[in-house]
Design brief:
The chain is mainly beta and 142 residues long. The protein has two helices and six strands; from the N terminus they run ααββββββ. 7% of the residues lie in helices and 31% in strands. Strands 1-4-3-2-5-6 form a six-stranded antiparallel beta barrel.
């Protein structure tokens, strides 16, 4: 569904837009606590980490929180990371392991394949929307 865990999937620098909720915050017409922070240029600039979904190319491969995301096929650590896996679990509905992660310009990278570096392990993941199942909420009240 795209639910997130505040504290694991977010930190103090995460804005509503970073997790895909920017539209909700922009609908408020009046002033509110935190509005000044949302209006800062740095919080609207490109290159921010954004919440995305991740699926291993090998459907049976478990994903682990903390793995570093690297854009490009030949990148090896030590390298500046492009993001990280924030939380991971097995989805019985999808029959595979899934994860959420923060990725630099993440929404622009939907459909791309990344390398995950997790200690001495390397594997490939595909960037997908963070709502893995029923993104249109058709089954929520059914």
């Amino acid at each position: 569904k795209g639910y997130l865990h505040v504290g694991s999937d977010t930190d103090g620098s995460t804005t509503p837009d970073d997790v895909g909720w920017g539209r909700v915050a922009r609908r408020k017409q009046s002033d509110f606590i935190g509005r000044r922070s949302l209006d800062r240029v740095a919080n609207r600039a490109g290159g921010r980490n954004q919440l995305v979904g991740l699926q291993a190319l090998d459907a049976a491969r478990p994903l682990r929180a903390g793995g570093h995301l690297l854009v490009g096929e030949n990148r090896q650590p030590p390298a500046l990371t492009d993001g990280w896996i924030t939380s991971a679990a097995f989805s019985p509905t999808l029959g595979r392991h899934i994860a959420l992660g923060m990725l630099k310009d993440g929404r622009e990278r939907l459909g791309s394949v990344l390398t995950v570096c997790d200690e001495d392990d390397r594997y490939r993941v595909k960037v997908v929307p963070s709502a893995f199942h029923d993104p249109e909420n058709q089954k929520l009240g059914a």
